[in-house]
Design brief:
The complex is a heterodimer of chains A (about 160) and B (about 400). Chain A is α+β, with helices and mostly antiparallel strands. Chain A is built from four helices and seven strands, in the order H-H-E-E-E-E-H-H-E-E-E. In chain A, about 20% of the residues lie in helices and about 30% in strands. Chain A is globular and about 40 Å long. In chain B, about 60% of the residues are buried. Chain B contains five helices and 23 strands. Classes of the chains: A alpha+beta (about 160), B mainly beta (about 400).
Chain lengths: ~160, ~400
């Protein structure tokens, strides 16, 4: 599987992202959960997905359409980092990429959750994850409760 | 079998399981007969289906059948594998490598590379080769079926996009079963998307035992519902199970019937008493519960309880059980299902105190095991308890029966 890795300066990528957002360029990248938007490492490249960015009042959503048909949405606070990641579609995205430093925590909980339950959740002070679904239909939401911009409800994050 | 429920529920500690002396050491006695008129079907399209604690002694509300796999074309190089879970929300036969003794050939691509698959579950991934097997269940046969062998020690290099799905689900203990028989309302486990392009985290072409690259796979070569490939009785399945006493049972016996309206033993009830609910592309229908419309709801024999969110029902306080309900007394509830075809059906169900259910350590069949569905606030998951005392048909996409066209569930 050929993958694209970017070595260009982050600021250049940010500039490209701003310029090409409406063109759904795959060169636009988003950061993993808890990472600053400025430290972009290339989720979209990793996901081989096209990105659409949507501005909200207090945050920005990078929406990445994956080859599997699944859509990943990364929520970035103004002047802050990625405070939530949501996904929905026929496949689960690479969560090591999407959850970043929180992935090991996720796996630890997954180990204790039986396969015969089609849902799993993590409710910790610094991390909340809800995942659900079955073959060909999965949904998930991971967020950092303390990083959600004021005035934003969890219900908006989907 | 002690503590089977606790293990199946994922609770990480032991509790006093025999608090009610009268409920200890018994089990398996009187199991009710469904709906009055239903009798146990017989025929070459009927596989006996049972519920017990499973091969790892950790299963609850898990329905099993035996499946025979043969090297394609052979009538002697075969193996019958018991305790394969019947799952109406997945597609295809998957067997755990540790129980497979017959040498089923790994499928190869035109390049000579081996075909491997990464299968996603909510908790993570199953990794293993796609082999070819003649699959026999009851008197039905599907020849040269793509089947996944999970956890094959010959293929241990799992791609990053696969391990990135979560934890490994690669053992009999992980599944509480020797395999999974996916007989849901679609055919392939991925479908046209995986045929058109290489999808990361799905199918892989591997050379040797290490180098793997995502690959596109024709739908015919994808792991798929074997029922669709039976010579007859191939338009779906019916799961028929007796009702279960409120306190539970140690075992339950029922039937997995192949075909709908293909024989006298699998006829639809065309007189209007059978409700046909079609599902959308995600196998979803809508459940209306407590005035809320839950658009990603599903019927699923592979879920071991009834999972839904109800703020009026108290959850259990015990560590490890906080996702399960513990009402002071068994509570009767109902939800209205609406199919993609707009047809509605009211479903009555009960939720018992999960902690109380734990008091009988030998019981693994519960009609009233319920919990929250924290993964989604738009989902009502009607698991195997929904099937108790019912005859539930699953029609495969594109097939027309006397009562409707799949994909649908009918009961």
């Amino acid at each position: 599987m050929p993958r694209q890795f970017f070595t260009i300066d982050d600021r250049v990528i940010a500039l490209i992202a701003a310029l090409l957002a409406t063109l759904l360029s795959p060169s636009i990248a988003s950061a993993a959960l808890g990472e600053p938007e400025s430290s972009i490492q290339g989720d979209a490249a990793k996901f081989q997905g096209a990105v659409n960015s949507i501005e909200h009042l207090t945050y920005r959503v990078h929406e990445i359409a994956l080859p599997s048909g699944t859509v990943v949405r990364e929520f970035v606070a103004q002047g802050g980092g990625v405070f939530a990641v949501a996904w929905h579609g026929p496949a689960i995205p690479n969560l090591r990429q999407a959850l970043g430093r929180y992935f090991d925590n996720y796996v630890a909980v997954a180990k204790t959750t039986p396969v015969s339950q089609r849902r799993m959740d993590i409710n910790q002070a610094d991390l909340v994850v809800h995942v659900a679904g079955h073959m060909r239909a999965f949904t998930g939401l991971a967020y950092l409760p303390q990083a959600i911009p004021s005035g934003v409800s969890v219900g908006e994050l989907q | 079998m002690k503590g089977a429920l606790m293990r199946a529920l994922g609770a990480g500690f032991a509790v006093a399981l025999c608090m009610l002396a009268s409920a200890c050491g018994g089990g398996g006695d009187d199991v009710g007969v469904p709906g009055g008129t239903t009798t146990t079907p017989s025929g070459s399209n009927v596989a006996p289906a049972t519920i017990d604690s499973g091969p790892a002694n950790n299963s609850v509300n898990t329905l099993f059948v035996s499946v025979t796999v043969c090297v394609p074309g052979s009538t002697t190089n075969c193996q019958t594998i018991d305790h394969v879970e019947v799952d109406t929300a997945s597609y295809g036969l998957r067997l755990l490598s540790s129980v497979v003794t017959v040498a089923l050939p790994v499928q190869t691509l035109s390049t000579g590379a081996s075909l491997l698959e990464c299968t996603a579950f909510v908790q993570g991934y199953s990794w293993g080769p796609v082999v070819s097997a003649d699959v026999q269940i009851a008197g039905e046969t599907a020849n040269s079926m793509p089947v996944q062998v999970i956890g094959d020690p010959n293929f241990t290099n799992v791609p990053d996009d696969c391990t990135g799905l979560g934890t490994a689900v690669n053992t009999v203990a992980d599944f509480g079963a020797n395999g999974i028989l996916g007989v849901g309302p679609f055919v392939e486990d991925c479908g046209s998307g995986c045929a058109e392009m290489a999808v990361p985290g799905s199918y892989y072409a591997c050379t040797g035992t290490s180098e793997c690259a995502a690959t596109a796979v024709a739908t015919t070569a994808q792991v798929q519902n074997p029922v669709n490939s039976f010579g007859t009785d191939n338009n779906g399945v019916i799961v028929q199970l007796p009702s279960v006493p409120a306190a539970g049972a140690a075992t339950l016996s029922g039937s997995l019937i192949f075909g709908i309206d293909t024989r006298s033993n699998n006829a639809s009830n065309a007189s209007g008493t059978e409700t046909v609910l079609t599902v959308d592309d995600g196998d979803y229908l809508t459940a209306t519960f407590n005035g809320r419309s839950l658009s990603q709801s599903f019927i699923d024999s592979g879920t071991n309880g009834i999972y839904f969110n109800d703020s009026d029902l108290p959850v259990c306080s015990a560590s490890g059980l906080t996702d399960f309900y513990c009402p002071s007394s068994t509570t009767s509830l109902s939800t209205t299902l609406t199919g993609a075809n707009g047809v509605t059906a009211s479903v009555q169900f009960s939720v018992a105190n999960t902690q109380s259910l734990l008091n009988n350590s030998t019981f693994v069949v519960f009609s009233d095991l319920g919990g929250t569905f924290p993964g989604s606030n738009v989902t009502f998951d009607l698991g195997l308890p929904f099937y108790y005392g019912r005859r539930v048909a699953t029609a495969i996409e594109g097939y027309t029966t006397t009562v409707g066209t799949g994909p649908y569930f009918a009961f």
